[in-house]
Specification:
Layout (H helix, E strand, L loop, with lengths): L3 H10 L13 E5 L2 E8 L8 H26 L6 E2 L1 H8 L8 H7 L2 E5 L7 E7 L8 E7 L5
Antiparallel strand pairs: 1-2, 2-6, 3-4, 4-5, 5-6
Helix pairs in contact: 3-4
């Protein structure tokens, strides 16, 4: 894995202006105070069989785990892996969950989460593989909003 470009992208998310919803071809979603980019995406899974999707999702998860390990060495120990089930339950009970965390709770099972030293920003990595009608993505989140 040549991770230099991914590390550079994660570093840039620490300092980018999040007040605008602008971005490159990797922009997955954005809003005031947050940006979500797709670092890697599968190709052709929308129309493939389920076993290929499972295998690809495992490969994408392994890639995300390797990248998270690199960021752990770069930024220090991350927060414990954050499971999204609790956020989904809270939302179902009517609690308003701020973006991007509300959408992330729908797209991913868990997030690796950091608050890099010297920033007040949260950076997260997750694998979006829950929607069988979509490709599998490694998503990087940058947010000025604290996780709920």
């Amino acid at each position: 894995m040549d991770s230099a470009k991914y590390v550079a992208k994660l570093d840039s998310l620490c300092t980018e202006d999040l007040s605008e919803a602008r971005g490159g071809s990797d922009l997955f979603m954005a809003g005031p105070g947050y940006r979500v980019v797709s670092l890697a995406v599968s190709h052709g899974l929308r129309t493939s069989d389920a076993s290929l999707r499972v295998e690809t999702a495992e490969d994408v998860q392994a890639f995300k785990d390797r990248l998270a390990q690199e960021m752990h060495h770069r930024w220090g120990e991350q927060r414990p892996t954050w499971g999204m089930v609790t956020l989904r339950v809270r939302a179902e009970r009517g609690e308003e969950i701020p973006e991007p965390w509300a959408t992330m709770s729908i797209l991913v099972e868990e997030l690796d989460l950091w608050q890099p030293v010297g920033t007040e920003r949260w950076i997260a990595l997750g694998v979006a593989d829950k929607d069988d009608a979509d490709e599998v993505h490694v998503l990087a989140v940058a947010s000025d909003t604290d996780p709920p």
